[in-house]
UniProtKB/TrEMBL annotation:
Keyword Transmembrane: yes
GO cellular component: membrane
Keyword tags: Membrane, Transmembrane, Transmembrane helix
Descriptive protein name: ABC-2 type transporter transmembrane domain-containing protein
Predominant place of localization: membrane
Subcellular location: Membrane
UniProt-listed Pfam families: ABC2_membrane_3
Record's bilayer topology term: Multi-pass membrane protein
Keyword Membrane tagged: yes
Residue intervals of the ABC-2 type transporter transmembrane domain: 49-229
Source organism of this protein record: Ruthenibacterium lactatiformans
InterPro entries assigned to the protein according to its UniProt record, in alphabetical order: ABC2_TM
Length: 238
């Protein structure tokens, strides 16, 4: 156990450093922050909670979904996974370290967005808990993308449309009609709803909370099954 933890810690530190060396990853991390700063500068009259929601949704659809797949594919391009395997690093340790590194990057951006939009530290723990729960499905799908794709270009081809599928329904759910119904089945909408609860803008009582939790649970379970099947079939060095 100690050996696995030591390997995981070493890989985690390596992946954190690699994240901030990769210009594509840095761009993905910076985009939600740039987006929010521009919106605040223009001042379109959006509430801080809604502005924070937009930033978090963009971050959810860019960082866990796109960056994780990109980082896995980058290792394939450089053939570094084979070198790690010669050092007795398992595929599980490899993926776990990358997943934790990307989760840390996601929560770092979320935290900056949180304070950037004017919220106080009292609400931060619940906010980060909701963001972590919402990130799990995206991390699984991002890992799945990295496993099935051979390079960073192909991960972008898959992750880009997926990001739009998850982000757009949530952003336009307020228009009602079909969009609102479709959005209710999307995990990013469930995350946004629970985030508003954590910020104190809605009541924790009611069927909507149970529905949002159920949506996240179903998406997480389904994504975990797909990820496990892909990992079992292809591994991490295909």
């Amino acid at each position: 156990m100690k050996k696995h933890l030591r390997v995981l810690r070493t890989l985690f530190v390596k992946d954190i450093v690699d994240m901030f060396k990769n210009p594509n990853v840095l761009l993905m991390l910076a985009l939600p922050l740039i987006f929010i700063v521009i919106y605040q500068f223009v001042d379109l009259g959006m509430s801080p909670a809604y502005l924070l929601m937009l930033g978090v949704m963009m971050n959810l659809c860019l960082t866990p979904l796109s960056v994780l797949g990109m980082m896995i594919a980058e290792e394939k391009e450089k053939n570094t996974m084979r070198t790690l395997m010669l050092c007795n690093v398992t595929g599980g340790e490899f993926l776990a370290a990358k997943t934790l590194a990307v989760l840390a990057g996601t929560l770092l951006v979320d935290t900056v967005l949180f304070f950037l939009t004017g919220f106080g530290p009292v609400q931060l723990p619940v906010f980060l808990l909701v963001c972590t729960a919402g990130s799990i499905t995206m991390l699984l799908l991002g890992g799945l993308t990295g496993i099935v794709c051979r390079d960073q270009t192909s991960t972008g081809t898959i992750a880009g449309p997926l990001a739009l599928v998850f982000m757009l329904p949530t952003m336009f759910a307020g228009m009602g009609g079909v969009l609102q119904k479709v959005a209710s089945f999307v995990p990013t909408t469930a995350t946004a709803d629970l985030m508003f609860l954590g910020l104190g803008h809605q009541s924790w009582m009611g069927a909507n909370v149970l529905w949002d939790v159920a949506v996240l649970a179903v998406w997480t379970a389904g994504s975990a099954v797909l990820f496990a099947l892909a990992f079992r079939k292809k591994g991490v060095d295909n």
